[in-house]
Each structure stands twice: as structure tokens, then as C-alpha cells.
Design brief:
Blueprint lengths: L1 H10 L12 H12 L2 H13 L3 H29 L3 H11 L7 H33 L8 H13 L1 H20 L2 H29 L3 H9 L8 H14 L6 H6 L8 H29 L9 H12 L4 H34 L4 H21 L14 H28 L2 H8 L3 H26 L1
Helix pairs in contact: 2-9, 2-13, 2-15, 3-11, 3-13, 3-15, 4-5, 4-10, 4-11, 4-13, 4-17, 4-19, 5-6, 6-8, 6-15, 6-16, 6-17, 7-14, 8-9, 8-15, 8-16, 9-13, 9-15, 10-13, 14-15, 15-16, 16-17, 17-19
Bound molecules: 4-fluoro-L-phenylalanine.
The site of 4-fluoro-L-phenylalanine has 15 residues, from helix 2, helix 3, helix 11 and helix 15.
Amino acid sequence: MAVSMVQGAAGAIAGKVHGHWSSRMGFIIAAVGSAVGLGNVWKFPYMVGQSGGAAFVLVYLACIALIGLPIIVAEWLIGRRGQKNPVNTMADLARSQNRSPAWVAVGIAGTLAGFLILSFYSVIGGWSLAYLGDAASGTFAGIDKATAGALFDGLLASPGTLLAWHTLFMAVVIGIVCRGVRGGLERASRLLMPALGAILVVLVAYGMTTDGFGAAVSYLFSPDWNRLTGEVVLAALGHAFFTLSLGMGVMMAYGSYLGQEVNLLRAARTVAIADTVIALFAGLAIFPIVFSHGLDAAAGPGLVFVTLPLAFGGLSGGSLLASLFFALLVFAAVTSAISLLEPAVELVEERTPLSRVGAGLATGLAAWALGIVALLSFNAWSDVLIFGNTVFDTLDKLTSKFLLPLTGLGAIAFVAWCLDRESVRAELRLSPTAFRVWDVVARFVAPIGVLIVFINSL
Ligand code: PFF
């Protein structure tokens, strides 16, 4: 605690004292809250479905361990050393290590990525809220395939409805972030994550009672190696990045609120395991329902928003299950969205005279405004194209193909190649032998893995 307070004072700029997590546990819950999001509950199951099941899952697990884990540690380590927003942190560390000032690009790209992703993440968060409303009001009861499809298409085609839900979602996010590190980010995760876990257990338990459970288990866990293509490997690696919230300045910002008492490797292992277990559980909740209704597991992005309502609609008690499911999706989205805003808020808070509340409002409203452009690309502006992509797709591609790999690669390369190695070994509390393993992974395996994805995506 004393350590945190000293660091808190050292991290302050122009008299502003920078927040800290209340404890190691509080930090871990917030980091898990960031990692567990739409990526786990919405994207992971449909990616498994599209990429052919267990082979994808196994590659994904390897990517988490060999690439995701070292990069989380690198981002936290950088953030903790800097004790400031990602931009100032990178600038300070580069200067103190006599490295090129260009390293600041890592902090800028990460902060920008988080902000841009939030703008469209909030639109999807809005869909989740809309579906929670539909589920609770019994809209799915007895629904047929055509109606389920029409419901989703109707939502996308209606800018007013999308705007209302996007606005509500962003208001919740801004409200939480304005309350600060402990009272906002940490508290929201402490409340929402256990609720999320409990709902997931109920849904998996329900899945076990259906006759699709066996099929779901073998779908997720028994690999068909013939389906493993280069594309599947790339998708797995890209998703490992996204699901652990890497390359967006988020983990750097979260690291800047950390004290020395936290063991970074252990914390990273906990976060990676929790994130993976929750993604797999989401699969075990969703696929039994899909299979027991004879529906298509490879339905793609509509899996959660079209296929599931159809399944819930045919169940007695389906409205309750559907409400639980979409509440789960909303909770997961909120605790991730708040983390996406944090690097930008930290930057504005530390570099301008604005208070925490002022910084939260200014950055949140800017992301909200950009989100409006993104949501219009599903309807009124669907023919406004930038190099052949809608605004929504442009934001998605710009961030996931350029900014994220650049930031993630920069973070791991900076820690592995630019920082004093003995100090990194000591900070990671590794024996000389264990450090050799870390060194090979951090210097070669992880950066090369990221580079491969980066080059392939171009
Ligand atoms: N990790 C989140 C998910 O899996 O949905 C998404 C996310 C949150 C990505 C925060 C990046 C981030 F900074």
C-alpha cells in the first residue's frame, strides 16, 4: 500500500494524483473484466463455428500462451514503470533508456486504437441492450427463422433505434469511467463479473440438460485437423490478441495504476486462464442450444443475435434464459468498454486541466459521436465507402489490422530488446533459468508470431 502511494504521487502530473487499484484482487478482477467481453461471448463461439471447431480452439490456446501472455506482461510492466498514460509512459521510458523518441508511437497507436474500437464496440453493446429488452419482454416466444432474421435486420436498418441503444450504452460507460479507477473501473467489475460467472454457470447447466450437450463438447474439444488452414491459424492469433485486450493501450493504462506488490506473470496467467475458461463456457452454453435445435453452428456474426433467439423462442422458460443470456452479454460488454475508454481518459486527465469527470465526458462524447457514423454505415450511409469499406468496417480493419499489431509488437519488443534485462528479470521474479525461457519467447516467438499475422493481414 505504501509503495502504491509513493508511486501514486510520483505519477502525478501538475499536482494531479493518479488513482490506484485497491488491491491485487481488485486489479485482477478489473483486468479480467476488460478481457472478458463480446469477444468471448459473441465472437469466440462464432469463430469456432466458422473455423471448424476444436482445431481452432487448440491453436487459439497455443496463441494465448505463447503470444498473448508475454504481451500482457510487457504492457503491464511498461505501464507500471511509467505510472502515466500510455503516451507519456512510452515517451518517458524511451528517454530514460536512451532510446529513440519514436517509441512514443506505441503509446499513441494504443490509445487511438482503444478510442476507435470503443466507438463501434458501443454500437454492438447497444445491440446487446436492445436484445436484452426484447428477451425480457418475451419477443422471442414462438419466433420462426424468418422473423428472427427480420428482427436483427430491422434493428440494423433503423438508425434511430441503434442510436438510442448506442447512446444508453455509452452513457453507462461514461458514468462508470468518470467515477475513477477504484470507484468506477474496479467497482463495476467487482459487481458485474461475479454476476456474469453465475449466469454462465446457469446457462451451461441448462445446456447439460439438452440432448445437444455431447455434440457441443465434441465440437469444442475433439479436433478435425483437416480443417486447420493458414487462415484458421491467423484468425486464432488475431482473436487471442483481441480477447486479451492487447495492443490498445488498455493493459498499459491498467498497469499504470499498479504497485510493485503484484507479480505480473502470475496475474497474467490468472487473467489468461479466466478469459479462456469463460470463452469455452460461453461455447458450452451456446452450442448445446444450437445443436439441440438442429441449427447452424457456422452462422457467423448472427449466431448470437439470430440463431439463439430462435432457439430460446422454442423453449418453455425461454424468455428467462434469453434474458439471462443477453444480460451476460451486456455485462461482458460494459466491463470491456470502460477499459477501452481508460487510456484516452488517462491521457486527457493528465495532460489537460480537465478533471477526471471532464476528461471522461470529453473523450466519451467524442467516441459516441464517432459511433454514430459507425452505426449509420448499417443503414443510411451504407454506400459511403472508404477504399471500398463502410465506416464500421474501416474502423474495425484499421484497428485490428494496423494499430493493434503495431502496439502489441512495440510493447513486447520494447520490453525484450530495450529495457535493462537484469531489471526485467528481477521485476518478473524469475530465476536465471526461467528467465532464459521468457527471453526466447519475448524476443523471438511472440514478436515473430505478431509479425506473421500483421504481414498476412496486409
Ligand atoms: N477483450 C474484449 C473482448 O474480448 O471482448 C474486447 C476488448 C476490450 C478489446 C478492451 C480491447 C480492449 F482494450
